[in-house]
Every structure is written in structure tokens, then in C-alpha cells.
Amino acid sequence: MAKDLEEYTGFDTGFFVLEPCVFEDVEKLLADKEELSLSECLSRAKIPCSFVSGYFWMDIDTPEDLARATRLLVKMAVKGKGDGFISRTINRRLSTWVSSKVINYLTPNKATVLTTFLGILASFLLFFNPVLGAILYQLSSALDGIDGEIARASLRESPFGGWLDSVLDRLVDFSFLAGLFLLWQPENLIDQAMALAAIFGSFMVSYTAERYKGAFQRDIYEDIPLLRKIPGKRDERVFFIMIMVILGLWKELFWILALVCNARVFLTIYLVTIKREKILPDSKF
Fold first, then answer.
1. For residue 285, is it within any domain?
2. What pLDDT score does 282 carry?
3. Same domain, 94 and 192
4. Same domain, 19 and 101
5. Fewer Cβ in 10 A, N or C end of the chain?
6. DSSP letters for 135-196
7. How many CA atoms does the CB half-sphere of 237 hold within 13 Å?
8. pTM for the complete prediction?
């Protein structure tokens, strides 16, 4: 069909499965005509149409079509279930754009290593320029989704890739928060305790979600949707840390992080406990 139609009801995928009898019908038509249209052949042979419904499909004829298809595939590859507010509104806009540009050049695991390197570099940069370090930390967090987007869009997901991403995220988070703690050097015992609680809580938010998946082979955000709305997820923490470092509110940063993250951890434990029979009806625990 013409490609400049403003209104249409479907797409012709251009894929045909033809049996020998079809060519016999075409030869009979050619006996009367020198030229045939495709629709005449299909009508004479009574070839049925199969509707491709509910699946992504796109006709690619030009490099521009290929680039557009790549962007759409990457956007469709966004998992999104566990995304926090910052990921939904800011990070994914950047990560999907970058993923569509590098998907043919980077493997998912190489993308993981690249964003990890940015996070570690941000930790070192803290000791020379805390504001620039915090901004780079946020950038590494925004790009943290490209490994998963590339993996899903190019059908290269693997258990190892998911495990590697989770482990290296913890390495980056610890390095950055430990760097902040060493620079702040609180003398008050209570402030020191809250800083350690903040680091612990940051780890436990991610750990409870990952451990749930490992133990039950289910996504905690599907089983307990309420957790999507509770603040404290990694994308939200990193963005909050950047803002507080820029404002110079280091003590407030650790106190708020400690209270929010640990409150979320205890709430997660409570919600999993009261919903365990609905989530896992055959469970013995």
C-alpha cells in the first residue's frame, strides 16, 4: 500500500507463504494478461490473511526507518516495574536515547562496566570537587538502565548480566557514600551512627528487593505494588544525594537517608510478612 496514506486500518507485513498451486494460478492468469497486480494473484489463489495483532512490527526500508525502529525497540524494552519517580521522569529519557545510539556497539555487560566506571570515578572526584562528583554520580545512575535496555531490546538478557549489574551497583553506592562519610568526618557519635545507618539502609533497600526475587523467583513490585510509591529507591536516593551535596547539607543528607531508607526496609518486611499467604499460598513459612 502507499506509504503516504493519512488514514489506514492495518499494515501489510510483506511476508507470504506460498504453496505450488499458487504459481499454477498465476500462470493461468498470465495466459490472459501480460501484467498482473499482487492483489489479483492473491484473489485468484484465495490466499488467506493472518492478522499480526498485539505484536510490534514496522516496515524498514531506509536507514531512517532503522533508526526509528531501534528507538522504539529500546523504549519498549524498558522494564519499568521497579522504576522510582526520578527514573520515570528523568533517567529513562536519557538512558533510552543513549541506548538507541550505542546498542549496536556495546554489549549489555560492557554497558554495565561503563556505568560502574563512571560511578567509581564520581567517588574519587568527591575528594577534589564534591559538587562535580555528585553530578557525575547522578549521571552514572541515569545511565545505569542502558545495560538492561540493550539486553532486552537485542534479546541478550542473561542471569549473569542481571547479577553483575546488581553487585556493581552496590559497589558504586558504597564507594560514594563512604567517600562522603570520610569527607564529612562527623565528631558527634550520634551523627556517626546515623551516617552508618544511612549506608546500611541504602544497601538494604536494594537487598530486600533482590533477595525477594532470588528466594521466590517473583518481582516484589508486582506482588506488592505499594512499594513503587514508597520513596527510597536507588534512582531517588542518588538524585537526592546529588541535591544535598550541591546545597552543602551533608548532615541532613545522612539523617534523612537513614530515616527514609530504614523505614522503607522495615515496611517492606512488614508487607511481605502480612501478604505472604496471598503471594505464596503453598508456602510453609
1. no
2. 57
3. yes
4. no
5. C
6. HHHHHHHHGGGHHHHHHHHTT---HHHHHHHHHHHHHHHHHHHHHHHHHH---SHHHHHHHH
7. 29
8. 0.79
